Every structure is written in C-alpha cells, then in structure tokens.
Amino acid sequence: MSVTAAKGYLASGLHAGIKKSGKPDLALIVSARLASAAGVFTVNRFRAAPVGICQERLRASGGRARAILATSGSANAMTGEAGRRDAIELSRVAAQELRVEEHHVLVASTGAIGTRIRLSLESAKKAIHIASGNMGCTANSGLAAARAIMTTDTRAKQAVARFCDGATKFAVGGMAKGVGMVAPKMATVLVFVTTDAEVSPQKLQAALIGAVGPTLNSISVDGQMSTNDTCIILANGAASTRPLSSSGYGKFAVALKEVLGSLSRQLVSDGEGATRLIEVAVRGARTPAEARMAVRAVGDSMLVKTAIYGRQANWGRIAQALGACEELHFIPERVSVKVGGYAAIRGGLLVPVSSAIQRALNAGLVRIEIDLKAGRHIAEVLTCDLTEGYIKENAGYLS
Amino acid sequence: MSVTAAKGYLASGLHAGIKKSGKPDLALIVSARLASAAGVFTVNRFRAAPVGICQERLRASGGRARAILATSGSANAMTGEAGRRDAIELSRVAAQELRVEEHHVLVASTGAIGTRIRLSLESAKKAIHIASGNMGCTANSGLAAARAIMTTDTRAKQAVARFCDGATKFAVGGMAKGVGMVAPKMATVLVFVTTDAEVSPQKLQAALIGAVGPTLNSISVDGQMSTNDTCIILANGAASTRPLSSSGYGKFAVALKEVLGSLSRQLVSDGEGATRLIEVAVRGARTPAEARMAVRAVGDSMLVKTAIYGRQANWGRIAQALGACEELHFIPERVSVKVGGYAAIRGGLLVPVSSAIQRALNAGLVRIEIDLKAGRHIAEVLTCDLTEGYIKENAGYLS
C-alpha cells in the first residue's frame, strides 16, 4: 500500500521494453480528478529532460496534474533535444490514453545517464494502453508501480500515514527509489506521494519543501547528486468535500514528513552495498551552514564509513573529517563526540574504548553525536556504511 | 637511494618496538652539518603533536635543523599534553645521542590517530642508540629509513634528481609514505627531502611551497586530510662552497619539483586498494578556485572512481559530479570532456563509446580532460580508482 492508500488514485507497473532484463520499467499513477501538484527537483546543472518538463508543466498549469508517468532503465539525461522529444512523446501517449490534458501528465526517469529511452512509439502506445487497463487502487497495484521504478534497489520502498479526527480525515502514501547518487540536496531519488486531502497548490508546495528538508535532503549514500532527482506530490481532495482547516493542514504537514521520513530511511537502508545505517548529528555549530558542513564532512567521509562497516572504534577519523573543514569554526580542545550514547571524544581527546561503545558499534544503526561547542546550531544526516558491495555495484553497473 | 643521495646525509631505520608486528618503525635522517630547513604541514585543526613541535622549532631556529626523527605505528594525534611530552622526550633522546641542539631535531609520526607512542624511555634510548650507530650514506641506508615510515604502504617511495653544470652541482633526494587520507592540501604523507645545495632557509621555504602546489597538493586518494601531514626539506650545502646562483636556484626548484612529483605519483599508485591512476585536468574555469573545485568534484567522486575501476565508459558520472557543484560557473551545453584523448562528452552530450576510448580505459593511467569553456583557469589532480581493496584496508585497519 503506498500511492494507492489515499482515495481516488489508481496505479500500475509493468515491463514496457526499456530494461533488457525484462523487469518492470514503467509506472503509471493517476488521480481520478484533477489534483493539486507540487514538486522538488535536482539542482544538478545536467538535469534530465523529464525534470525540466515537470518544472515547466507545474508552472504552466498553476500546480495541477492528473497523472505521473515514470520509467526506469534510462535516465534520459544528457540526451539533448532528442531526449526531450522522447519524454514529451511518452507523456502525449499517456495523455491520449487517459484522455487528460498533456500538460497535466508529469514525467520522471531513472537509470544510466546519457542513454535514450529504448522504446518505439508503437511499443510505448501498447505498454501504456496495457498499464492503463491494469490500473488498480489496491495495495498490489501500488506495489507494482513502486517496483517498476527500481534500478539497483533490492526492494520497493513504500510508506503510508493516515489521519482521522472528526471531519479531518486523509491519507498520505508514497513510493520511492534510490540507492546510489544519494546526497543532499535530494537523494538520487524518485519519490511520488499522493494524498486525498484537499490542499491548494501553493500550500502543497510549502508543505513539501518543509518536509523534504529534514528527510530527503538529510540523507546521503555516497555524496553524489543525481541528474534526475524528483519528488512529486498530488493532492486530489477526494477524502473530504472541504479544504483542510488550518489545524488540519498542520496534521497534513506532519503526516507528509512522516511518509518522507520513512521513505528516506528505507532509501538509505537499501543504499548500494549498505549493511548498516549511520546517523550523524551535530550541535553547537556557529551557523546553520556550518552545522550542515560538519555533518556532511563526517557523513560523507569514506574513512568514517569504512570504520563503521568494520566495527572499528577509530574515532580519530571523525576528528580528521571535522578538522579538515577549513571553514568550520571550533576549538579542537572543546569538541566532544558520542557514539551510541557513549563518550568517544571528550575535550578533543580520545576516550579509551569501552566494551559498551564497542557493542554500540554492532548495532544496525550507529548514532554519532558531535558537539562543536561553538554556537547553537544543529544538523543531522542519515547515511550508511561503505562496503565492498558499493564497489561491486558501481564498478559493474553498465556492464 | 633517496635521502642519502645528497652529500653529507646519513640515514637508518629499524624496529624500535612501537609496531606490534615487529616491522621497522623508527627512521633517523641526520645532516653532517647544520642545514637550512623548511617545512609544509597539515592544516587539519586536530594536528598531531609532532606537527606543532616542528613548526615551533623551525620558527625558533630561524629555519635550521640537524636531524629528522620519524616514527610509524602511532600518529600521536589527539593525545594531548602527554603526546606532546612523548614527542619532545623522543627528540631529546635523539639530540643527546647525536650531540646536537634539541631544537635542531625535527619530529614526525604516522599511524592510527589517538594512540600514544608505545615506547618506554629505556627502549627509546636503546633504539635511537642503535639507529645512530647503524646510520649510513648508502642506498641501503636510505631505503631502511624509507621503510621505517611505512604504515599500510605496500612499497617504499623514493626519488632522486641530480644537477651538474660546471660549478653548479647538487642532488635532491626524497622519501615518502602515504596511502590513505591522501588529499589536498597535503597528502597524508610524511615526506623528507635532503639536498646538498646551499640554500638559505627563506629561499628553501619558497622553493618548497612552489614545489608542493602542483605535486603533493594535487593528489588525492580518498579526499581525506590527515592530522599528521608533514613535508620537511634539509639543505646542507655540502655539494659546494658557495650559495646557489640565481639560475642555480631555478635549477634547484625544478629538481625539487621533480622529486616531489615522482614521490606524489608513487604515493597515488600505492593508494589503498588502487589498481590504476586517474588524472583529472580542468581548463576553461572562471577562477583558479573554481578550477580546483571542479577537479576535486570529479577526482573525489566515488562513482567516477568505481567506474574507472570497472572500466566503465560511464561518462554521465563525470557530468553528474560537475553539475552538482553549485558554486561552479559553466553552461552544461558547452562542456566537453575527453578521456584518454578521445571525446567522451561534446557540447554537453555523451559521445557514443568508441572502441578506442574503451581501450583507453584499460590503461594504467586514465586521463580525464574537462573543458568548462567558462574562463581561462586550469587545475589538475592525480588520484586513483576505488576498489574493494580500499574497503578491506580501511574496515580492518585497527583490528
């Protein structure tokens, strides 16, 4: 149950012929009525064709959409005008099949950069016709769509939050894919969320931006930023005849954060080759930017990530990563670090490794808490360990 | 032949008892006469005790030194006052043994961060007495010293340059250790260079800074910066009775760059788990800082490094790394990239993979040339691929 949890949404997924493996590669999500729509996209300058198209259409439609068409197997990035035509053509086929306006169809793609979507117009028409016929509102339909956007993901990612309190009643459901090129801002991720709450496009965009900050923008697998990152939310208001009240909107914002938070954890857990999660929390930074700099320096450090993988109490690597940030203000002799709640560095000195902290290193989630004692700002990032699995996955990805 | 190539230097290396493995862990380099001395050190805020001591002594002596004492097996970083006393004690023992001023002994350490040097005063005295007695000016003595500073290095790194033109005659020899935490500024590296040219401390420092920029500061293994990076050069003037002429100084600067360049290549070749070298060159950047930002973004990208390891013509990963630099100015549609001299990206689009470029991917050194077409500034970095070997090495380092 994910994008079909909210009322008035249909979804399906199938193999259209893009992936040579024969695995599902096309997902369709449709709202029974015109929905408010909002999106957050990659800021990579080599953004993929579908990213640009979504941004244009959301602007042109004033934040309204009916459907999302997502393909996996090709990123459709660095494909120039031809790639742009491919994406528009696909959305046109979907619009004709669903009998909706072309600019109400949002598109997204994921896969290797620089390859075009290998799908003739004939095959596309056939696949989208079948996908449209197969659409359902069951948990299985949602799962089929979630599976169809996977690349090196080992499992589908789905999350749902429901709220019901008298007249205020809604569901928020989402699906995601991730694994490599996952870093703030925006994991290399496609995320699609649907809700049956009634929310205006402007409020929907505001809620999305608020929810993405502590969730999708606070995770990292390898510090790399994809050309295709896309998070789209549709709100069709099918749950109620009235717009959300102000307090109802607050509940909705919380539910959205919950769904994106769950998907973010699932994304990092399934990071390429990851065996365990690492949570890096910084406090006492002089500015918000410095707090983010510090969590990224530690969270993206290959030495910290391999140490956690090897269950090594090698805290010097944490200090090394902090100390190397030339623009980070702190006094080394005041820094303290806890791992799993136990002191690892105190007053800039390593604390002898206890058996308790060694046990904390064996947990599925290792939390590293850093206090810079230079101010009052905080930041957090969720990442994973770096293992031989990541190397294998990425050395062989195109072969 | 390395630090003993220049006249008037003696060296030795032995197992003093710091490393549990019984491998050599103490190196001694001594100039027969008081030498000009200059150094470049880590800018990591968690700098190790010996780094601070070297900086103080070079200042106090006006850039003069007689000996370098280096140990491996413990970084002596994050060891506080106790670590500082350890380092001073060791240098005092060496000064007494060699009958030189204590502040003319420079010290350096490498190994795991946060551990103290496990050596009693008794053992230190004994070891330094033997090291002093074993000192020689042969190639074997230089090699023994180079071996005694190795940690996860698989081979000793040495380089020599000689110049002889009438009255101007000198040798420059160096040794180094590296492998992990190798990134600008300064590889995690100990580098010791000796020359018998007569150069004033001021000119020596200037030549060193000039030579470090394009060599030690332009290499990277994992984008991490050590707490111990140290490069020291001694110039004792034993080759001649006169200071270098202005043109002789130019020749000396070239020779020094040659020695540090050779050591840099050796350091990256022996990067943890590395199988091949990657040279990233950027031109057409708007500013020098942006040129450096671009080479680092590509050279430190785990996705680029694993692609080269897997011989994957996955150029989209190069674009991804560039596009993610928010502060880098360029127009994606103008960017071109060559790999091994063959076009990989042209006008922002991927060029179909030819068999020639696929062959270039099999070479021991893969050169990636990026033209941002946004200005006239250039930068280069030498790095290595990322393999399972790096993970194994770093997940198990302390075990």
List the helices and strands and how they pair.
Two copies of one chain form a homodimer.
Chain A: E1 9-14, E2 26-41, H1 49-60, E3 64-72, H2 80-98, E4 105-110, H3 121-134, H4 139-148, E5 157-165, E6 168-177, E7 190-195, H5 201-212, E8 230-235, H6 246-269, E9 277-285, H7 288-299, H8 302-309, H9 316-323, E10 336-339, E11 342-346, E12 349-350, H10 355-360, E13 365-371, E14 377-384, H11 388-395
Characterise this structure.
By secondary structure, the first copy, chain A, is α+β, with helices and mostly antiparallel strands. Chain A folds into two domains: 9-269, L-amino peptidase D-ALA esterase/amidase (4-Layer Sandwich), CATH 3.60.70; 277-395, ArgJ beta chain, C-terminal domain (Ubiquitin-like (UB roll)). Chain A has eleven helices and 14 strands. Chain A has helices spanning 49-60, 80-98, 121-134, 139-148, 201-212, 246-269, 288-299, 302-309, 316-323, 355-360, 388-395; strands at 9-14, 26-41, 64-72, 105-110, 157-165, 168-177, 190-195, 230-235, 277-285, 336-339, 342-346, 349-350, 365-371, 377-384. In chain A, the strands form two sheets. In chain A, strands 1, 2, 3, 4, 5, 6, 7 and 8 form an eight-stranded mixed β-sheet that branches. In chain A, α2 crosses α3 (121-134). Chain A is globular and about 65 Å long. At the A-B interface, α8, α9, β12 and α11 of A face α8, α9, β12 and α11 of B.
